[in-house]
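Figure 2 data, in text form.
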Amino acid sequence: MRVASPAMDEPAAQNRRTVDVLGAKIDHIDLDGAVARIADWIDHPRESTRFVAATGFHGLWIAQQDRRFLEILNSADLFCPDGIAPVWISKLQGGGLHTRVPGPSLMSAVLEAANERRDSSFFYGDRSETLDALKTRLERRYPGHRIAGMRSPPFRALTAAEDEAMIREINAARPDILWVALGLPKQEIWIHEHRDRLEVPVAVAIGAAFGFVSGRVSRAPEWIGNSGFEWVWRLMAEPKKLWRRDLIDGPRFLLHVLREHVRSKRRRRVAP
């Protein structure tokens, strides 16, 4: 791990551009910019771990119902618009975001850069069979990248002793990047609550990316994602897992966005 340099925080904060989307401070950034920022943070770590969030409508919808989760998302050092929903809402509000930064694309691009830079990663989350497939693919595709460790936690709350042991294992492995795939919002909350105890330059809440990057779950073509219909592709691939989110929460989120848009227009009309 590189030596911490707290003085690097100020320029990074000054150069950050965010767009307010339903109260969430989402970064105005593209994929290349996100990869470059993470690489810079690895080269110039600070005492506390940098937190990267990447979510779309699902995270925004939970944040509308849970103020604490909205605050956790806004505490991220980098908040990528994973999904087309934040981009569309931004345009509905008058512009700002121009492109999405999908979690699987971010993870693949960072690993490709890590292959050249000789960076290392620790993978925390998902199922053991997914981690096995991920390990096989990464070792073949990115031989210059080092897998510092992998751990699939039990599907229950960890005891205090287990939690402390997990932190010790991650820190002992000394990775440059910690990828956390515990599902939303658990993964974001986990990073937020542990970032001051982690000795890792960057921790990324990456959702279902382990399955996509490992090849166990097929990704929708880019044109489908950009057109806003990636949810249909994923629903067909994993109906039992996603039916409630896409068929119930999705329409409720859309109505909420339209309601907020109407309220915003009314407020602008009465403003002096």
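Caption note: The longest strand covers residues 50-55.
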